[in-house]
């Protein structure tokens, strides 16, 4: 019951934030300029949101949480495209990551599609009143002080699970970096999971699912291919990508 209250409070604050900021992000949309923040036509292709999911993937939420996620996308004038692979275990990376809006779009995406995914957070971050809400949204507390490799902790967790989707940002920060972190690749390779390339295209206002690759062990070659794919995706702050 307590976690449900925190979940509803979190959704309320997200809606307030989206409502306040939506005019700024939607200022370039003719339909919004003419009709206001809701618009006369649907701004989210709900059919596409339904097509993202495949039978083998883990699911979370219900019709209400999916409706909330699609409403958030409608407020922003964004849409969803692509389809995830039909596998029970998956590593999804998201790029370019140059803004706090990337995280908000990701939350809306996972709510709208009903995908049950995990993202790593230090254990202490969940030891407070909102810990239940964070876990519902997929937070996976990890012990950074524990002996051994952090990537191996996640590999072990994936291997113990029947279904598991992990989401990571390979840049590791919103600022420009010369070299991406490679933990996502090591985790996927160790768990025998494919890597799907997720993106937020701020020019087209599309959050989507790109190609999926199988890690071969040739890190440098495949990382170069991944970065080449993302080089064509417009970021919120291009100078940081």
From TrEMBL:
The residue ranges of the Phospholipid/glycerol acyltransferase domain are 91-200
Keyword annotations from UniProtKB, A to Z: Acyltransferase, Transferase
A Pfam family reported for this protein in Swiss-Prot or TrEMBL: Acyltransferase
Q: Which CDD domains match?
A: LPLAT_ABO13168-like
In terms of InterPro entries, this protein maps to: Plipid/glycerol_acylTrfase
One GO biological-process annotation of the entry reads: phosphatidic acid biosynthetic process
Q: Does the keyword Magnesium apply?
A: no
Can you say what this protein is called? Answer: Phospholipid/glycerol acyltransferase domain-containing protein
What organism is listed for this UniProt entry?
A: Caldilineaceae bacterium SB0661_bin_32
